[in-house]
Amino acid sequence: MRMIAVSIVALVAATPALAQTAQDKTVFDTSATDASGSDAADDAVVVTASRSGSGTEVRDLPASVAVLSAEQMEQRQTRLVSDILRDVPGVAVNRSIGGLTDVRIRGSEANHVLVLIDGIEASDPYQGQYDFGTLIADDGARVEVLRGQQSSLYGSDAIGGVIQYITPTGAENQGLSARVEGGSFRTAAGAARFGGVSGNIDYALSGTLYRTDGTPTDREGTRDIGYTGIGASAKVNWTPSDVLKLTGVGRYSYTDALSNDSAFSGPRFGFIVDTPGTHFKNKAYYGLVRAALSLADGRWNTSLTGQVADTTRTGYSAFGIDYGDKGQRYKASFESSLAFGTDAFRSKLTGAVDYEREQFRNTAVSPFAFSGRKSTENWGFVGQYEGTIADALVIGGSVRHDQNDRFADVTTYRVQAGYRLPFGLRARGAYGTGVKNPGYFELFAFADGRYIGNPNLKPEKSKGWEAGLDQEFAGGKATIGATYFDSKLQDEIFTTFPGPTFVATPANRTTRSQQRGVEVFASARPVEQLRFDLAYTYLNARENGTVELRRPKHIGSFNTTVFSLDKRFSSTLSVRYNGRQDDNAFIDPSFVPVRVSLQEYVLVNLNGEYRLSDRFSVFGRVENLFNERYEEVFSFATPGRGAYGGVKARF
Q1: Cα torsion at 550, 556, 558, 559 (round to 10°)?
Q2: How far apart are CA 552 and CA 540, in angstroms?
Q3: Which of 216, 268, 253 is nearest to 98 (CA)?
Q4: CA quadruple 210, 118, 440, 252: dihedral positive or negative?
Q5: How much is the pTM?
Q6: Which one of 91, 327, 334, 468 has the lowest number of neighbouring Cβ atoms within 10 Å?
Q7: Which residue has the higher pLDDT, 40 or 588?
């Protein structure tokens, strides 16, 4: 399989005539404009930025948003969604193989990012965040990334922003498609999807598999840390009349992964070492039902939604179950939106009510761990206004009040505006507040001699602003943009090690942390034969003057895709840079952390695909082309160069 991949990549380099397909209408980072330079600019729609239940045209959104399209995910041969998120300005990824994969936006914590999958809140109710290492890319899926405080729309968790992963409906992606591949580290992966329309019903079924023997995460070890991930989803839309639409979504995720522990004695104390028998399993079930009613020629839209997330995580050692937890989230939402005004002054007013109940229990038997069930209920009341004047000035505002039975009630808000000049320049700005309630792990977790939760924690609160400019050139063939952001976080939850026992426990800081920086993007299609996307982020994240952990000052990416003139051959080059960052190392037997610096690194991927016919194609890629040695988390070794190849079919 290595020879297949390398041969295809060699064919990419040897192709003399390259051209971009005219049908590739993709959107990258827009920050309220289309950064792809395609004529899809005015038609690009995002659904995450509004509670109205309908999409918002990107040109009418004065906020920082990125859309990673299905075409981009396919062109970059994305297998784990966290990989392509590295190409979004303001986003940083830390993957610890055999552990959590954290995604941060604008220097926020990973649990400050709200994650939606087809509209379902996907975070683990116990962990308080979503593990992106479990999300395998589906055929035809796309990702929306909304940056900045969004608690006024979604409540707790949306301090840094919102990431929504969206799978296509049967009407959007009809037919049968399948993909199989294999390659380095005894990796095998596949995906299949079937979608279609029958009368007033459209349906879609999809499944994914990713399995690898992996590589050692111990710097000096020989134990390969393997991973098996399975995903399955179903989506059905029934439109019994012109004004009523019923939707059902179901999703299942399963992960079985090996892991290693840190040494607790000897000269390698605190370093990751081979730990035979250690692994974890994670299961998650998600479901959503929605009824949407559209009246007054589509100007008045009302919906009622119910959703559930059920997650189970169990860790094993060589002696049996080491830890375990089970969490559920039940949520109901009522939304109603009215559009009114004239062509010169369009307005939309939306109201929403959310009810949410989260609960958890520890499943591992321990005389020290809390073994009962804890739950939290929350009511949220949302108001949102969106207005467009003369197709140039866009204004918006939202406010939300949350009533919580565990934490103090809180009100959050956001205001934003943008103005487009006739020569393609757009100026925009926003100010917002956010909140993040402590998670059950922070409140009630217990690990004998190592960690104890703090039930007296307060919610974290954030406020921040942003201002940006975007400029289109040559009728939309190229776009550049820059955004400055500045956020402050108070009552930040951190881990402290109080004496005399030095057992880790969370607490609220009395000082403020600040995250500020600049996001830059450029995207162009100067000729039909070439397209490129570039993203860069400068981040200065400090807490009381000290640089915060795992916040690299510089992050950047460059992606370019070319096509042959007959559109049968394509190749994509991806270059991703991650700057130097600090991390904590628990290499002192007192468990007091030692701050260390992780080296910067550059990852280069090169792939190619050749269409044998309208139905079949072969593809290959090389990941980490130059065999970069790096660590994203202290002491977790990462894979070297890998080559993969396979076949795709579509009917």
Answers
A1: 40
A2: 8
A3: 216
A4: negative
A5: 0.92
A6: 334
A7: 588
Could you give the count of Cα atoms lying within 13 Å of 634 in the half-sphere of its Cβ? Answer: 17
* Helix, coil or strand: residue 185: helix
Give the least confident one: 58-62, 227-231, 554-558.
58-62
Distance between CA atoms of 420 and 31, rounded to whole angstroms? 12
Phi, psi of 348 (to 5 degrees): -145, 130
Give the model confidence (pLDDT) of 88-121 as tens digits: 999 999 998 888 899 999 999 999 999 999 999 9
User: Facing residues of 268 across strands?
Assistant: none
* Single-letter code of the amino acid located at 318: A
What is the dihedral sign for C-alpha 481, 486, 492, 495?
A: positive
Residues 6+ apart with CB under 8 A from 337: 51, 52, 53, 54, 300, 301, 302, 348, 349, 350, 351
Which of 120, 19, 7 shows the shortest CA–CA distance to 606?
7
* Contact assessment for residue 281 and residue 255, using Cβ atoms and an 8 Å cutoff: yes
Tokens of 292: 């949407």
pLDDT, tens digit, 9 for 90 and up, residues 415-462:
999 999 988 899 999 999 999 999 988 998 877 667 888 999 999 999
Of 578, 593, 594, 595, whose CA–CA distance to 631 is shortest?
Answer: 578
Helix (H) or strand (E) holding 437: none
- Alpha-carbon distances of 501 from 263, 367, 497, rounded to whole Å: 19, 20, 8
Rounded distance, CA 492 to CA 539, Å?
18
pLDDT over 50 (residue 163): yes
Collapsing DSSP to helix, strand or coil, 425 comes out as strand
Q: State the DSSP string of 598-610.
A: EPPEEEEEEEEEE
Reference 603, options 37, 93, 40; nearest CA is 93
